[in-house]
Amino acid sequence: MSPEQKLLIVFSAVFVLCAGTSFWLSKKGFSEKLVTRCVTLLVACCSCIIIIAAAGPERIESLIFNKDGGTINLATPEEQNESLEYADKKTKLPLEKLEEITRKAETQPVNQRTDADYLVLAMEAHRNDRHEKALQYAYTGLSMPPSSIKIIASLFNRVASAYGSMGFTDKSIDYYKRAITIEPDFSWPYFNLGKTYYGLAKTSANPDFFDDALAFYEKAIDLDPDDVSGDDFFTLGSIYQEKGNMNRAEEYFTKAAEIGAK
Q1: Average pLDDT by consecutive 10-residue portion of the chain (262 residues)?
Q2: 88: left (phi over 0), alpha (psi -120 to 50) or beta
Q3: Torsion angle of C-alpha atoms 83, 86, 88, 93, degrees rounded to 10
């Protein structure tokens, strides 16, 4: 018997079952509303049976897992660490290693890529000012099975950065905050929110944004004092200067000069 014949038989059986159930409930004196609900539920359940019959169990499994119906692709701990180091704004990886990681992610078959691969691709696109492509890669990474909480938070951080670079500040802030919600001890979105609110404070008439920027910068430094750049210290000095605290401003300007702000 061909698959089409089997599907026709299943469909016919479902039709007869629904019609018979509706007739039986009506005869028993049940209300029209109840009859409608029961038949709707039955149709929904039978529709699932039809879909499985039409697609086949193997296809259903492949849709749930991946295109090949195999195991879920997750990045190894080593691959996760590499992708996070790659995505760090102050990465210490040598150029040769960066190129190797990029090449690996780019040449990986699409159906074998992990969320960590898409984090690498998104960061590479960002560094080349291809912000729409970075956004696309980051969103694709978020649709993949999660290798770790930090990879997911990093992808949200990358979505936020892409939106910020494209001028969508409100969306950018929203996604940075989502990254923080997912991983509260992750310093990157705090640094980026500090920078974003500082930019808003400089371009708007709302001085409260300086306070917001300061709060996020201080939280970021508290979480990861080794990740502070000269630019971060310079921005902090500028915030304190705007707030009239020249002693703190001078302190941070000095730190920025020691590290080297761009």
Answers
A1: 49 61 62 62 58 46 45 86 88 90 94 94 94 95 94 96 95 97 95 95 89 94 89 91 92 88 56
A2: beta
A3: 130
31, 96, 177, 244 from 155: Cα distances, Å: 52, 24, 12, 37
Cβ(220)–Cβ(191) below 8 Å: yes
